[in-house]
Amino acid sequence: MDSEKLLVIGCGDLGRRLAHHLNDSSVQVTGLRRHPPHTPHEGLTYVSADAADASALQQILASGYDYIVMTPTPTARTDEGYERGYLAPCRALVQALAASPAPKKVVMVSSTSVYGQNHGEWIDEQAEALPSKFNGRRILEAEALLADAGLPLTVLRLAGIYGPGRDRLLDSVRSARARASQAYTNRIHAEDAAGFIAYLLTEVGPVAPLYLVSDGESPTKAQVVRWLAGALGVAEPPPGDADGDLNKRIDNRRMLSTGYRLRYESFTEGFAELIQRSP
């Protein structure tokens, strides 16, 4: 089988995991970062560029890529940070692709924060995106930039990613800063986030324009932090109010309808492994 080429724009932890999942496939992975790491990663070649620089992107894309995966992150947790981290790279990609070979597929890693609903609703791909905060609004604008350009686009709106190196919730329980609210929460393990992207690129025929990526469990935050406290052997967190834009439930049936099988179907499986590995 002839090899295919994938460019991961903004290649961080998720991009490295994606390359690992594709290591035994025919897909050659290039990761674009402004400052690539000095240590190489198996199955991943880095190229240094600013994702918001359309001219640099055009030069890189001139060699032709079958797939482009965008894994944007904000430069800061501010409106301007989301503008720079999401909108600017999407604008640059649209400009660069106007004068570059067309890819077979463009995948944008987005977020369920575009849904501002917070009354315990079940959200699926038919639900209207009603962002209540600047981050969700900027991410939705970035999605629209790519969609309006007529690209062969699939958007993946991810629930909260957890996994190795993402220890904020664990640390808050250990340090007695966590609060046990009754708001519903949603998450996806980093391995399943990357695994599903790889699965879409290599195993699925026609793909939908939008998938919600979650383990589908939707426990309350109280259930999660009280389980974590028990597993860590620390005091149970006290009750608390709902957090921000929490309290919605993400329906993952379209994702599962592709045939993808989750490695971590429950937060207890994923966090138990993290706790076992932690010092």
From TrEMBL:
Known EC number: 1.1.1.290
One of the Pfam families matching this protein, by short name: NAD_binding_10
Gene Ontology MF, one: 4-phosphoerythronate dehydrogenase activity
Keywords, in A-Z order: Oxidoreductase
First-level EC class: oxidoreductase
NAD(P)-binding domain residues: 12-202
Family annotation (InterPro entries): NAD(P)-bd_dom (IPR016040), NAD(P)-bd_dom_sf (IPR036291), NAD(P)-dependent_oxidoreduct (IPR051783)
SUPFAM superfamilies in the cross-refs: NAD(P)-binding Rossmann-fold domains
PANTHER family per record: NAD(P)-BINDING DOMAIN-CONTAINING PROTEIN-RELATED, PROTEIN YEEZ
Descriptive protein name: SDR family oxidoreductase
